[in-house]
Amino acid sequence: MSEGREWTAERVARLRKAMGLSQAAFAREMGIRQQTVSEWETGRYQPRGASARLLGMLAEQRAPYDAAGPRPSEGEDGSP
Fold it and tell me: Which domains does the chain have, with CATH numbers?
Protein backbone atom coordinates (compact mmCIF):
# COMPACT_ATOMS: atom_id res chain seq x y z
CA MET A 1 0.00 0.00 0.00
CA SER A 2 1.43 3.38 -0.95
CA GLU A 3 1.00 5.13 2.41
CA GLY A 4 2.93 2.37 4.14
CA ARG A 5 0.19 1.15 6.48
CA GLU A 6 -3.12 -0.52 5.91
CA TRP A 7 -6.36 1.03 7.10
CA THR A 8 -7.44 -1.60 9.61
CA ALA A 9 -10.85 -1.59 11.27
CA GLU A 10 -9.29 -0.25 14.47
CA ARG A 11 -7.41 2.49 12.67
CA VAL A 12 -10.53 3.73 10.83
CA ALA A 13 -12.52 3.79 14.08
CA ARG A 14 -9.67 5.57 15.90
CA LEU A 15 -9.57 8.32 13.25
CA ARG A 16 -13.34 8.78 13.28
CA LYS A 17 -13.45 8.99 17.07
CA ALA A 18 -10.47 11.38 17.13
CA MET A 19 -12.49 13.60 14.81
CA GLY A 20 -15.42 13.41 17.24
CA LEU A 21 -17.82 12.14 14.57
CA SER A 22 -20.54 9.52 14.45
CA GLN A 23 -20.34 6.96 11.66
CA ALA A 24 -23.04 8.89 9.78
CA ALA A 25 -21.23 12.24 10.11
CA PHE A 26 -17.91 10.65 9.14
CA ALA A 27 -19.57 9.11 6.08
CA ARG A 28 -20.97 12.51 5.06
CA GLU A 29 -17.51 14.07 5.49
CA MET A 30 -16.07 11.45 3.13
CA GLY A 31 -18.98 11.38 0.69
CA ILE A 32 -19.76 7.71 1.30
CA ARG A 33 -22.55 5.67 2.90
CA GLN A 34 -22.68 5.09 6.67
CA GLN A 35 -22.90 1.36 5.93
CA THR A 36 -19.47 1.55 4.27
CA VAL A 37 -17.96 3.10 7.41
CA SER A 38 -19.59 0.37 9.50
CA GLU A 39 -18.20 -2.33 7.21
CA TRP A 40 -14.71 -0.84 7.49
CA GLU A 41 -14.93 -0.64 11.29
CA THR A 42 -16.16 -4.22 11.64
CA GLY A 43 -13.44 -5.48 9.32
CA ARG A 44 -15.85 -6.76 6.67
CA TYR A 45 -14.12 -4.58 4.07
CA GLN A 46 -10.95 -2.53 4.05
CA PRO A 47 -10.58 0.94 2.54
CA ARG A 48 -8.40 0.99 -0.56
CA GLY A 49 -7.62 3.22 -3.49
CA ALA A 50 -9.15 6.69 -3.33
CA SER A 51 -10.87 5.93 0.01
CA ALA A 52 -7.57 5.00 1.65
CA ARG A 53 -5.93 8.15 0.27
CA LEU A 54 -8.79 10.31 1.54
CA LEU A 55 -8.52 8.73 5.00
CA GLY A 56 -4.80 9.53 4.98
CA MET A 57 -5.48 13.16 4.10
CA LEU A 58 -8.12 13.46 6.83
CA ALA A 59 -5.73 11.92 9.33
CA GLU A 60 -2.99 14.40 8.42
CA GLN A 61 -5.37 17.35 8.91
CA ARG A 62 -6.52 16.27 12.37
CA ALA A 63 -4.25 17.21 15.24
CA PRO A 64 -3.31 15.72 17.64
CA TYR A 65 -4.26 12.54 15.77
CA ASP A 66 -1.30 11.00 13.97
CA ALA A 67 -2.02 8.67 11.05
CA ALA A 68 0.86 6.46 12.17
CA GLY A 69 -0.67 6.03 15.62
CA PRO A 70 0.02 7.55 19.01
CA ARG A 71 3.54 8.77 19.80
CA PRO A 72 5.00 9.51 23.22
CA SER A 73 5.03 13.22 24.03
CA GLU A 74 8.34 14.99 24.13
CA GLY A 75 10.01 14.62 27.49
CA GLU A 76 7.97 11.60 28.61
CA ASP A 77 11.11 9.50 28.69
CA GLY A 78 12.54 11.82 31.36
CA SER A 79 14.80 13.72 28.98
CA PRO A 80 15.15 17.48 29.56
Answer: 9-61 (1.10.260.40)
Helices 50-61, 9-18: axis angle to 10 degrees equals: 40
Write down the H helix ranges in 1-80: 9-18, 23-30, 34-42, 50-61
Burial class (CB in 10 A: 0-12, 13-18, 19+), 54: middle
pLDDT digits (tens, 9 = 90+) for 41-74: 999 999 999 999 999 999 988 755 454 554 444 4
The answer to whether 55 and 4 have CB atoms below 8 angstroms apart is no
Contact between 51 and 6 (Cβ < 8 Å): no
Greatest distance between any 2 Cα atoms in the chain: 48
